[in-house]
Amino acid sequence: MVDIILLAVGIALILVGLIGCIVPVLPGPPLSFLGMLALHYTHWGGFDPDLLWTMGSLAVIVTVLDYIVPIWGTKKFGGSKAGIWGASIGLLIGLFLVPLGIIFGPFVGAFLGELTQHNDSGKAFVAALGSLVGLLMGIGLKLIASGFITYYFIKELFI
Predict the structure, then answer these.
(1) How many Å apart are CA 150 and CA 29, to the nearest integer?
(2) Number of structural domains, the chain?
(3) DSSP letter assigned to residue 27
(4) Residue 42, helix vs strand vs coil
(5) Which residues contact 48 (CB under 8 A, 6 or more apart)?
(6) Is 138 exposed, middle or buried (0-12, 13-18, 19+ CB in 10 A)?
(7) What residue numbers bound the domain in which 84 lies?
């Protein structure tokens, strides 16, 4: 009975983890990893400890990078602190306008934040583009990490 409950929890965590790769409020890779751990403690599981350490480390690293990459993108494209704050606020507002708000919220927020610092709309657009590139890179990294974890989850369960 406990195995079935852990399996159900594991599947739910894997699915929510994949959704969390796109929805910024949910930590996708750590949730996916917890799903992998739940399966590990069933009779279907039994992952190699090295694989668990690798996937756990991957989840932590990608989660940390997810906070750094959008800021890096904004700075790399010439953004200021106002642009970074604008992108963060835009992301929070964008959560209520799913799915496009999640993508365009940070872009619009960074653009408006940059306009408060400079009157140059061209420079503000480029900085906002950097925010968008950073956000998309973070989503891509999370999807790759959660995808690996999901692959090993399914492989362990069915193969």
Answers:
(1) 10
(2) 1
(3) -
(4) coil
(5) none
(6) buried
(7) 2-158
Of 135, 138, 112, nearest in space to 125 by CA: 112
**Cα–Cα distance list, 66 to 61, 74, 101, 132, 156 (Å):** 9, 13, 18, 13, 28
Q: Cα 17–84–91 angle (5° rounding)? A: 40
Nearest alpha-carbon partner for 12 in 159, 125, 153, 148: 153
Q: What is the pLDDT of residues 43-70, one digit of tens each?
A: 888 899 999 999 999 999 999 998 888 7
Q: pTM of this prediction?
A: 0.83
Helix axes of 121-158 and 2-20: crossing angle, nearest 10 degrees: 160
Q: Give the tens place of pLDDT for each residue, 117-156.
A: 878 888 889 888 888 888 889 899 999 999 999 999 999 9
Contact 113, 75 (CB under 8 A): no
Report DSSP state, residue 96.
Answer: G
